[in-house]
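Ticket #4471: structure output looks truncated?

Reporter: J.K.
Steps to reproduce: submitted the chain below (263 residues) through the standard prediction queue, then opened the result file.
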Amino acid sequence: MFCQPFGGDSLRALPFSDRAARIGGEMRNNKLTVGAVVLSMLAIVGIQATAGNATAYTLTESVVYTEGIGVDGLYVTPTTTFPCSYVAPAANVEVDWSDDIIFHQFPVGQKVRTEVVLHDLDLGAAVYTLSAHFKIQAISALGGDPVGTVIYESSIIEGLWLDGPSDAYTAEVNSLGNLLYGYNWETRGLQSGWYRMTFWIDETPATDGFGNPVVYHGVDLTSGAAGDTDPTAGTIYASVGYDLGSDVCWLDMFLYPKTSGRK
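Returned output as attached by the reporter:
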């Protein structure tokens, strides 16, 4: 069941990207689970990690936290006031790549902002999971096989409890109050050609900063956003593919030669 947003059912019918612009929202409650000593220690680590993982903006959409841990590394208390915080499985999840990647041409040397959004279509909420992974590699051609070494590979769990900056994969809240997974890909020094970004869910339960198992409720990728393959929205410069049975999706894109400046 959906929790009730400001604006009622008419607001819930809007696309996720449009809701944020109309909702003032209030920040979700983060509350430590107290009792066990290990959780208290984990909270300290989570607070230290906040400097690198803090949300600069306030959430304006509900979120499913599939391990019960938030973007700041702290345990989440479920709430029923919009925007809601769910600690539950995400069983019907749509994957949405950012329009900027799909409808834009990038030359070698330009920094590419990669963004992926997950939404549970049953709960009407974004999805945050420590089991999200991301990889970039060169490929032989559009739809071809990987070639050479992996350029970048990381997961949310890798950087969540680190004390200090890192290039680990992260999730964040953008200026519209939407939760997304993002990475700034530096393409300087690469060759012109085809590259593949792969996003997937690792079904192996994650562990916390001390190696203790975290309760993983599960994420099931079931569909891709229609706009990712809709030519009526503009000229498509990237190709999106899915292996939903394995909770994997990818995007093939071409880096064009740079004609001037540093490469």
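Triage note (M.O.): checked the attachment and the full token line is present. Residues 8-256 form a domain with the Immunoglobulin-like fold (CATH 2.60.40.1930).
Status: closed, working as intended.
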